[in-house]
Amino acid sequence: MKQKRITVAIDGHSSCGKSTMAKALAKRVGYAYIDTGAMYRAVTLYCLEHDMIKGDEVNKPRLRRHIPKIEITFQVNEEGKSDTWLNGKNVEKEIRGMEVSNKVSLVSAIGFVRRAMVAQQQAMGKNKGIVMDGRDIGTAVFPDAELKVFVTASAKVRAQRRFDELLGKGETGINFDDILRNVEERDYIDSHREVNPLRQATDALVLDNSNITIAEQQQWLLQKYEEVVKS
Ligand code: DC
User: Which pLDDT tens digit goes with each residue over 87-103?
Assistant: First the structure.
């Protein structure tokens, strides 16, 4: 019997390991994986490159005019990993740096930016067989997803993970306290914005991964996935 293909929505706080588990599941079951945070990061990079952000202010009228010109795609690189491309340029490294991280919550809080990204995400997932991670996947992008997971971990644990990740990528001049502040600020903005705030879907399964290993969380997700496809 052919197994049914489903939509897997993984939401949660920043740096809580959502993408690690989402990617691993997608690879294991042969689904596409979409990192929606990377899309908001790419729009933020575009804004920075076009001088549209001054302090905490985004030039919204200009950005609104530019939105149709922003093309974000994902391409698998030679290591088999998915890279984010912005208007024909690989921006995977740039979108993970602190400059983008410090501004992304401002850009992702803008209603017309969210509507444009959500429409693209819905198009990418229209045939199911997809694992998508973000903040509003189970609540706004795919409210009918068959499997919804809400992942969380303490802010300190998440800041430490991001710190280690940036160090591992060779970023220099990074400071743990700056990263912790960035994580806390983004939690606040993400959960308090007007449009599609970070919220747990009422039918999501909750996973606090502060004290479990990556292998354990992957096993947990795979088991939940199998329960749904076999039901
Ligand atoms: O997952 P991440 O840290 O790469 O996400 C970057 C930012 O984008 C984060 O501050 C919240 C925002 N985001 C969002 O608002 N909605 C999503 N679906 C994904 C990310």
Answer: 999 999 999 988 998 89
